[in-house]
Write a structure and sequence with these properties.
A hairpin with a 4-residue loop joins strand 4 (42-50) and strand 5. With 153 residues, this protein is mainly beta. Helix content is 6%, strand content 51%.
Length: 153
């Protein structure tokens, strides 16, 4: 069974941090975690394999410039949300990164296959109604440290 997730993500070095958004995240069974992450106009495809009970390790690829790197995280789950916390390696520098996610029934634009009565409907899902209140309110996290220069994760 797959679990679908959406939420925010942050990368930080000791002096500053930048924020992006996890547009889609899927926990495939209990063995793989895949994320579709956006930062500014760039998209990152992240694929992490389960290496221990709650630990995942793997890599990412920037779809714009094809750069790659490694990432790992520990997955923490509560009643309300999922937290990923780990390390991200990019351009030879390690960053702490985290993503706060909430479970959703459908991703934005995903087509439902059944209506409320179980009939095939083929309509677009109404994702906002399916997101938890906390996740809706905190969908995007802003950087806690203002910076005039753009920080590359």
């Amino acid at each position: 069974m797959n679990t679908k997730l959406v939420g925010s993500t942050v990368w930080a070095v000791y002096t500053e941090s930048v924020a992006g958004e996890v547009r889609k995240g899927i926990i495939r069974g209990s063995r793989e975690l895949v994320l579709d992450v956006t930062y500014d106009d760039e998209r990152y495809a992240v694929t992490l394999k389960r290496v221990r009970v709650s630990q995942y390790s793997g890599g990412w690829k920037c779809l714009a410039d094809r750069s790659t790197g490694s990432a790992d995280c520990t997955l923490y789950r509560s009643e309300d949300d999922v937290l990923l916390f780990g390390r991200w390696l990019e351009d030879g520098e390690y960053y702490h990164w985290w993503a706060r996610l909430c479970e959703v029934k459908h991703f934005a634009g995903e087509v439902d296959t059944q209506d409320r009565n179980g009939n095939t409907a083929g309509r677009r899902s109404r994702v906002k109604a399916l997101l938890g209140t906390k996740c809706r309110e905190e969908k995007k996290v802003t950087s806690p440290i203002p910076s005039k220069k753009r920080v590359r994760r």
